[in-house]
Structure formats: C-alpha cells, structure tokens
Amino acid sequence: MRALDTATGAMRGRRVRALGRLVLSEAPLERLSGSELVEALLNAVRDQGLGLLDWDDAALQARARVRFMHALDGAPWPDWSDEVLLATVDDWLAPVLTGVQRLKDVNVAQALLNALPYDQRQRLNTEAPSRFETPAGSSLAIDYAAEGGPALDVRLQELFGQDKHPAIAGGRTPLTLRLLSPAHRPVQTTKDLPGFWRGSYAAVRAEMRGRYPKHPWPDDPINATPTRRAKPRGS
C-alpha cells in the first residue's frame, strides 16, 4: 500500500496482510525509489490535485506569464489551466521528479518553463519578462495576475525623464503603472505616463512636496533625472 504523507509531502509504502477487511499485520516498507516513486508521486497529484505542489510566487508568475501570452496569441502558447496541467503531468512534472522524495521539494516554476521549447522560453523572456528594470536601476517584479493586465508597482521618482509609457509584448501591451510615493504608498495608477507628467503630476507634486520635502519634485519631470534617493543634504 502506498500513501502520501500530507505533513511532509513524501510518499511512503506499507506492507499490509489482510483477510478480507480484517488487517492481520501492517509494517512500513523502505522508502520508495526510482521509477516506482515517480509514478507514485504522479498518481498522488492525479488523485489529489495540483495543491500538493508548492505554488510559490515564481511558479504563479511563470503560469501567469504564459497565460498572458496565450491570451494574446493563442497557439502555440500552451493552455496551463488546472484541467490541462492535471491531464499532462507526465509531460511537465515527471521529468523533474527523478531524485525527489517530496512533492513540496519540486521547483514548479522550473518544471513548467522546462516544458516550453527553447525558442519559446526565449520569446517569453523577451515579450513577457518577469521583471522590469527602472531607469533608476531597480529590478521590479511585474504582476501578471493583476486585474486589467500586467501591472508594476514603482516609485514615481524612478520614472523621471521617461516620455514613453513602458510596454511589453513587443510594445503591444502597456504596463499598468501603480505609482508610489517614496514611502511606497499608492499615489496614482496610469497607463499613460506622458499624460500623467503633463497633467495630474502638478497636483501630485504639490501634495508630495509637503509630505516628502527631502525628495526631489521637479517642475519638469520629463527632463529630470530618475532617482531612488532623497536630495543631498543642503540642497
């Protein structure tokens, strides 16, 4: 008999002697290994669902990035719905189970991305990157699960000097910018950064100067230098 230890995520085997429904004896077997363990782990996922795996932020983002590209272009991007992933565990999950004792140890993001052909992975990195590099040098995660399309939480001052709205998918999809104060508090949301600079920025600037006087708030943000820092002392 094989069963999944839900506390550890490991598969265990037990030797059971029974007469009908009467259990005569029961003893643990050595840990399963090799192809027998792989098949037991796959069967556990088939029977109990994808929740047995560790869906960390990287795994959720990888899935959301491919879902985004599938929504844009359809095939050849795969359908990674729960139903399809469960039906195809032999294709994407089995290859990473060799040597794994616990399902919780599986790198789900890597398992999913490894299932994509090399050229498709390269295109995913180009058109649906996991991170955005700001002009000020920060590397920020893109939220592909956001309502209304991919979004980015970014401090407003890191985008000074930008007169073009950031976009992905070869320029086809503008990022939703969730602009933040120096204290990472929401300031405004926009899909038109140049319009923001030329419009409501003036009102935002007036408010932010009072709250964060140590940070730069230029009259002309389009021609200002992006920054992550406060103003030098004495300026």
In short:
This protein starts with a strand and ends in a 24-residue tail after the last helix. The chain is 32% helix and 20% strand. It contains 8 helices and 10 strands.
Provide a descriptive summary of the structure in words.
With 235 residues, the protein is α+β, with helices and mostly antiparallel strands. The chain has two domains: 2-125, no CATH class; 131-223, no CATH class. 32% of the residues lie in helices and 20% in strands. The chain has helices at 34-48, 57-73, 82-87, 89-92, 108-114, 118-127, 193-198, 201-211; strands spanning 2-5, 10-19, 22-28, 131-133, 139-141, 151-155, 167-168, 173-174, 176-180, 186-190. It has a three-stranded antiparallel beta sheet. Helix 2 packs parallel to helix 5. The relative contact order is 0.10. The model has no long low-confidence stretch (mean pLDDT 89).
How does the SSE layout of this entry go?
Blueprint (H helix, E strand, L loop, with lengths): L1 E4 L4 E10 L2 E7 L5 H15 L8 H17 L8 H6 L1 H4 L15 H7 L3 H10 L3 E3 L5 E3 L9 E5 L11 E2 L4 E2 L1 E5 L5 E5 L2 H6 L2 H11 L24
Parallel strand pairs: 6-9
Antiparallel strand pairs: 1-2, 2-3, 4-5, 7-8, 9-10
Helix pairs in contact: 2-5
